[in-house]
Fold this sequence. Notes:
This protein is of the alpha+beta class. It is 24% helix and 22% strand. It is built from three helices and five strands, in the order αβββαβαβ. The protein has helices spanning 4-10, 58-73, 87-90, and strands at 17-20, 24-28, 36-42, 80-83, 99-103. Strands 1-2-3-5-4 form a five-stranded antiparallel β-sheet, with helices on one face. β1 (17-20) and β2 form a beta hairpin. The longest helix is centred in the middle third of the chain and has 16 residues, at 58-73. It is globular. It starts with a helix and ends in a 9-residue tail after the last strand. The model has no long low-confidence stretch (mean pLDDT 97). It binds guanosine-5'-monophosphate (5GP) and zinc ion. Residues 4, 13, 15, 27-31, 39, 85, 91-94 line the site of guanosine-5'-monophosphate.
Amino acid sequence: MDCLFCKIISGKIPSNKVYEDDKILAFHDISPMAPVHVVIIPKEHICCADKLNEENSQVVAHIFSKIPEIAKLLNLENGYRIVNNCKEDGGQTVLHLHFHLLGGKKLNTQLA
Length: 112
Ligand code: 5GP
Ligand code: ZN
């Protein structure tokens, strides 16, 4: 499958990893939008939030259960933002479900 993030999972494309387990991977974004900008992805290819369902959404709970640990590794004790862009209108450019973890400064509050 021609998916950039699947290639990062398989190691075909290198990444600067922050956290990995059997279900998920977190790595630094190649063009950070904040002093800390990490992308968290499931290892299972799910294209986007719009394709989540009862069968595949447990991994989202797993990602969120690990966010405090990942945030701690990144010294984000003062807080952070989690963002998901979904499909074209949401600004998603890589069609493999991912959550942006942003922090390291006081982020502006504009959401859209
Ligand atoms: P999206 O716009 O789909 O929500 O987020 C995709 C993110 O992936 C972008 O923030 C972009 O900078 C990041 N990205 C794209 N290609 C690469 C890459 O090859 N390596 C890494 N580490 N991040 C990437
Ligand atoms: Zn993929």
